[in-house]
Amino acid sequence: MHTSALARFLRYVTVDTRADDTSASCPSTPGQLELARMLAAELRDLGASDAAVDANGYVMATVPASPGCEQIPAIGFVAHVDTSPEMSGTNVRPIVHARYEGGDIVLPDDPTAVLRVADNPALAERIGDDIVTASGMTLLGADDKAGVAAIVAAAERLIASPHLRHGPVRICFTPDEEIGRGANSFDVQKFGCVCAYTLDGGGRGELEYESFSADLVTAAFKGFNTHPGYARGRMVNAIRVASDFIASLPRTELTPEVTDGYDGFVHAYDVNAAVDRTVVKVLLRDFDTRQLAVLRELVETRAHTAVAAHPGASVEVKVQEQYRNMREVLDLHPDVIDKARVAMRRLGLEPVERPIRGGTDGSRLSFMGLPTPNLFAGEHNFHSRLEWVSAQDMDLAALVVVELACVWAE
What we know:
- 30% of the residues lie in helices and 21% in strands.
- The protein is α+β, with helices and mostly antiparallel strands.
């Protein structure tokens, strides 16, 4: 008797694994290490005897090849244990809405938190499924514990089914994906796979192999602070300079609120403000990597224009590369995508192929020599109190993992 992905998921979400981008440690929070150790123990109990957690909180394990398939190249499956720093992950109380009958779902701990069908067309497609939400005060953690649960459930099926013909299957659970560090200490050589698949996607059947290219701009505005009662002719308010800069950024185009599909954007998302020094962080995103230079010049120009209007002010602009469009690599490995299509279709799923308006560990892993597209895990309303997942979608994701392992052995 297999343990369902749902049963595993309900355990995993109770561990607070919220990432912290102010921490320099890896993983950035102790809860991630707690869950990593739990997962390694579970995998060992299932028969993946080499399952272990390294010093940086990465879990690696192997599902051994079936008899006669030892020489087939290994493939991998990857998910991340951390959750978004944008919403509390403390005391998550998962609620299973069994055999969902349709209609809006009011989350009990905050009646203003309502999962509305009008805003969630995917929910209307899951009538009859077991829908899981949090209680209204926290995120659920489906991003990416749904992927983690599906992979562990798939590992159990593979190990318990000696009649299935598959090569070695490697598993890795990463920390700190939500703060852009998920691939920082990923040992691709140790993983030893010809390709991998992240399970960190949305609705049933999603297959994603192109992502944003991404940079982070940090603009540090320097002013001069003095007692406001005696500030005439002396004070230079960095908050005012930064405000002018933010107000000068595009509003009717190139913002997350008005873009979709293959549109890129400029997104000022974090401000650390004081009169003497105000730091603004701005995300740059585009599917065409060359366009990042255009967006970077736009932001830098607006920053210097804001400073020019405030004598005595200055600005230091730094640009950090975050990740690049995985399609630049995956176009060179079409079989990795094709085999995912085959596996899904054998399970009666027609692949839903669309670009990721974000990034996954696979965005960076692909450029580190491990071609890694992204598969669905049933996640919806990422980073929100209204996050939800279908238990049946998690089970299907687990079956896709099993089928993919078999497809690669053919």
